[in-house]
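Ops channel
N.P.: pipeline sanity check, posting one input/output pair.
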């Protein structure tokens, strides 16, 4: 992702994007800008309304230089019933 987009989260939310972490019940108190990572996943409002998403975050707690502590963010899309 382009680094200029890191600072655009509020703009995206303002035009209708949804933050997965918050929608899935995670707190909004953790800092999201860490200089070398993006700590949020956004989805369009239409996609959120159309599908049920499951989200898993695989965390690797090993300290590493220049790596995020999130190994992967996995979104699984299922049609809403």
């Amino acid at each position: 992702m382009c680094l200029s987009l890191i600072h655009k989260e509020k703009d995206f939310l303002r035009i209708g994007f949804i933050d997965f972490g918050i929608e899935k019940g995670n707190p909004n108190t953790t800092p999201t800008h860490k200089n070398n990572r993006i700590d949020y996943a956004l989805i369009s409002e239409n996609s959120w309304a159309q599908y049920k998403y499951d989200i898993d975050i695989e965390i690797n707690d090993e300290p590493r230089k220049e790596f995020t502590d999130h190994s992967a963010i996995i979104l699984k899309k299922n049609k809403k019933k």
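N.P.: looks fine end to end. Helices lie at 9-14, 20-23, 45-50.
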